[in-house]
Amino acid sequence: MGRTVVVLGGGISGLAACYHLSRAPRPPKVVLVEGSPRLGGWIRSVQGPDGAIFELGPRGIRPAGALGARTLLMVSLGDSSLEADHIISAIPASALSELLPAEAAPLAGVLRTISAVSVAVVNLQYRGARLPVQGFGHLVPSAEDPGVLGIVYDSVAFPEQDGSPPGLRVTVMLGGSWLQTLAAGGALSQELFQQQAQEAAATQLGLKEPPSHCLVHLHKNCIPQYTVGHWQKLEAAKQFLAAQRLPLTLAGASYEGVAVNDCIESGRQAAFSVLGTEPHPDPHTLQP
Ligand SMILES: Cc1cc2nc3c(=O)[nH]c(=O)nc-3n(C[C@H](O)[C@H](O)[C@H](O)COP(=O)(O)OP(=O)(O)OC[C@H]3O[C@@H](n4cnc5c(N)ncnc54)[C@H](O)[C@@H]3O)c2cc1C
Q: Which GO terms describe its cellular component (predicted)?
């Protein structure tokens, strides 16, 4: 009988692991366990009434969800249990720490300390407006504004997603100590995020008219923080897994890079470590 590999988490890391597992010469049975009703994790696009597309998460590389989803096997577990030869965890470290059995308490203790910060994402669209500058966007130093992390000029990179008739799209990212203080005081509100974002767009880009469309999303604990001692934590986790011979491999943004590219690579590495073969360039994705 073939092996069964469970992949926990259907974000880009888990999807990449599934993809590479399923491409093995003798692929194991792959079971993807995702806790939410959709795949993609933080990667999410929504369409506005005029057809414009708004990215709620990353936009640095284009989502390839349909291609990934076609190769995936979705299993609804309900209350039942599932036997597997190996598990790839591609969920946040803190979420995994809650699932581990008592015997793995030392590992859970390490994973629990890998925290993440929240970001409020405000997508704005302006009819008949023009940007004073071109580029991917700009970052704002916390000394200048403790709340605005930066503004992405979505229309510059992807003008074809501006809708019909086209409207200028920008995304304001809010976070930092400002957001943490608001959260601590229980003062988070969509109206406040929208107001803060519109003010930033007005003062920093001259977009003074009210937006024609606005989306506000608070992504809680979405960006893992690699604080001092992070690599020692990873080493401790690896040593525990090796010493206990646990059939568990860690992948995802919590460990060795939060960028989409890092997450895809972590899923690839996890798949190859389970399969027992060396990672090699994928001829379909790496062009000379
Ligand atoms: C607003 C924002 C903008 C970003 N911009 C960029 C960018 O421009 N470029 C870039 O490279 N990166 C960017 N990033 C970072 C990148 O998008 C993320 O680090 C990456 O998508 C994380 O992927 P992941 O699969 O590791 O984790 P996630 O996307 O968090 O996926 C984990 C999945 O596990 C599921 N899950 C959690 N707990 C359980 C459980 N107990 N059981 C089952 N399932 C569970 C979740 O529902 C989720 O689907 C951005 C991130 C954010 C939030």
A: mitochondrial inner membrane
User: What is the band of 195 on the pLDDT scale with cuts at 50, 70, 90?
Assistant: very high
φ, ψ (nearest 5 deg) of residue 227: -80, 175
Predicted TM-score of the model (pTM):
0.89
Residue 131 Cα distances to 135, 159, 201, angstroms:
10, 12, 10
Give the integer Cα–Cα distance in Å for 104 and 41: 26
- Domains defined along the chain, listed by start: 4-42+60-114+226-275 (3.50.50.60), 116-224 (3.90.660.20)
38 close to ligand 1 (CB < 6 Angstrom): no
pLDDT of 72-83, one tens digit each? 333 334 456 778
Q: At 14, phi and psi to the nearest 5?
A: -65, -40
Q: From the CB of 62, is ligand 1 less than 6 Å away?
A: no
